[in-house]
Amino acid sequence: xxxxxxxxxxxxxxxxxxxxxxxxxxxxxxxxxxxxxxxxxxxxxxxxxxxxxxxxxxxxxxxxxxxxxxxxxxxx
Length: 76
Prior knowledge:
76 residues, mainly alpha, 0% strand, repeat
């Protein structure tokens, strides 16, 4: 008998949160590349979020972009 690992199913709320994090990362990437107005995007994606949410966004950005969010924003 084969041993199959049971994948953890994401709830709809978790999927929505993940999609929002990905969208936030895209917006932050545009800010870092001077393609979007920084004030509006930063308020929408970081300032109104909890510390835990900001850390998850930072981790997702680093995973998706292969770069450090803080360093990119400082450069941009």
